[in-house]
Amino acid sequence: MKMTPLFAALCLASLSFAEDDGKLTIDIPSPVQAAIAKEKGDTGKILEFKRVNEADGATYVVGLIIDGQNYELVLDAAGRVMKKALKSDDDGPKLMTIKSVPLKVQQTLQREAGAGLINDIERSEEKTTYSTEVVIAKRKYRIIVDAAGTLVSKEYVGEEDEK
């Protein structure tokens, strides 16, 4: 896709940036900076940072490493956490062939299938998780933690109900 000079100028005008030592720097609102610092903690590291323009304003997507785990942090322009989730390579069940599963699994499947034809085999790796909803500064979040105590996700689910 080619960028016309007018389109390029409009894109550049929508971001405030400065170039220092050949590096592009983008102004990050201080509430967003504070939220990132709080969510990554003292030992976390920032891997990547993106500003995404959405219909309802700017959204910031930050890749973090916390306790050796990769997380995606999503913040709104006011620095409020919208989502913090463990990045997982598990995209659901994986399809396998009979030859690619462990020998003991092959033997059990063949024994149980008898003369039946074994097609694709689904491998899934579900883990025990613990989920709760909490209210933080009048905002409701769903927090999910696995059995080892690793944060799976923390996601904004709405405002606290007025009582």
Write a brief caption for the model:
This protein has helices at residues 5-14, 30-40, 103-113, and strands at residues 17-20, 23-26, 45-54, 57-66, 69-76, 81-86, 94-96, 121-123, 129-136, 139-146, 151-159. With 163 residues, it is of the alpha+beta class. The protein is elongated.
**Main structural class:** alpha+beta
The structural domain count equals 2
The radius of gyration computed from the alpha-carbon positions, rounded to a whole number of angstroms, is: 23 Å
- SSE ordering: HEEHEEEEEHEEEE
The CATH class of the largest domain is Alpha Beta
Shape: elongated
Helix fraction by DSSP (H/I, runs of at least 4):
10-25%
Q: Number of DSSP helices?
A: 3
Q: Percent of residues in beta strands?
A: 35-45%
Question: Which second-level CATH architecture of the largest domain applies?
Answer: 3-Layer(aba) Sandwich
Strands side by side in the biggest sheet = 3-4-5-6-11-10-9
> Main β-sheet, in a few words?
7 strands, antiparallel
Distance between the termini: 53 Å
